[in-house]
Amino acid sequence: MSVESVAFWGLAVVLVASSLAVVLTRNLFHSVLYLALSLTATAGVFLSLDAEFLAAIQLLLYAGGVVTIAVFAIVVTERLVGDRITQTSRQLFTGFILAGALLVALLVVFRRAPLTVPRPVVTGDLTRAIGESLLTSYVLSFELLGVLLLAGLLGALYFARPDD
Amino acid sequence: MTLQAYLTLAALLFCIGLFGVLTRRNTIGILLGIELMLNAVNINLVAFARCLGDVSGMVFTVFTICITVVEVALGLALVILIFRIRRTAVADHLDLLRG
After folding, report:
1. How far apart are the first and last CA of chain A?
2. DSSP-derived secondary structure for A40-66
3. What's the rounded Cα separation, in Å, for the pair B83 and B89?
4. Which helix (H) or strand (E) holds A35?
5. SS3 A93
6. Phi, psi at residue A138, to the nearest 5°?
């Protein structure tokens, strides 16, 4: 086995195990910590796909930002220790059947589709290509993203205003 | 690794996230499940972009990551707001519109 496939399988095991822990563990705070592990492993998957820039964004925004916000929300809505932080799940059987059916359907599609294309070698700097693409073909979407961030910021401020 | 391996991994993660969204009762737990699903989509986008030699998929990943962060920030702001009004973070307790 090559180094690449060893890295992929290691990352895949960590990803699946930590994602299962996110949806199955009873402690909500542990759930968020497992999510952080899962998002970090995803950054590893991006690295194995030669997307260093996306791996950095993933670590900064997701593993840094999202996890911090989620922990903050838990601290506000639950007590961090004690029995209120435990959460229960419902309709485990229905959820399992639905998710399993979707997984089987997807795998059947993957088996039928001709997806065994060989991976092309990287030509040039991918980060540079992303940057050039962002500011040429996708410049309108890029600007709209800035507007969305501003709207989100104002919305969150509006939600968080003190009671008057 | 082949494209198929990455797609299978992402499908597995997506279904785990869907299971979490369907079964969790706490609103924060549901949001974490949505995070897992979006994460799986990102893996798919990057894998396709890399294997087809087209950088557009990676640009889309930049967009989805940014939009997801906004979504989480606003979603959790809503959770905190609902908690301040109703003193609960469990989705089943939010039945104001039930007839």
Report:
1. 64
2. HHHHHHHHHTT-HHHHHHIIIIIIIII
3. 6
4. helix A28-48
5. helix
6. -110, 30
The pLDDT, as a whole number, for residue B9 is 92
pLDDT at A119: 73
Asked if residues A67 and B68 have their Cβ atoms less than 8 Å apart, the reply is no
What is the C-alpha separation between A53 and A3, in angstroms, rounded? 22
Task: Provide, as residue numbers in chain B, all residues whose Cβ is less than 8 Å from the Cβ of A152.
Answer: 70, 73-74
A102 interface with B at CB cutoff 8 Å = yes
Name the residue in chain B with its Cα closest to that of A12.
Answer: B9
Both tokens of residue B71?
């979504």
Please give the ipTM for the structure prediction: 0.89
Tell me, what's the pLDDT at A86?
Answer: 66
Residues B47, B93: Cα–Cα separation, whole Å:
40
pTM of the model: 0.88
Q: How confident is the model at residue A161 (pLDDT cuts 50, 70, 90)?
A: confident
CATH architecture of B3-90: Orthogonal Bundle (1.10)
Query: So what's the pLDDT on residue A10?
Result: 92
Q: Which residues pair with B26 in a beta bridge?
A: B90
Chain B nearest CA to A103, separation (Å): 6
What pLDDT, on a 0 to 100 scale, did the predictor assign at position A82?
52
CB neighbours (10 Å) of residue A18? 22
DSSP codes of every residue in chain B? --HHHHHHHHHHHHHHHHHHHHHB-BHHHHHHHHHHHHHHHHHHHHHHHHHHT-THHHHHHHHHHHHHHHHHHHHHHHHHHHHHHHS--BGGG--TT--
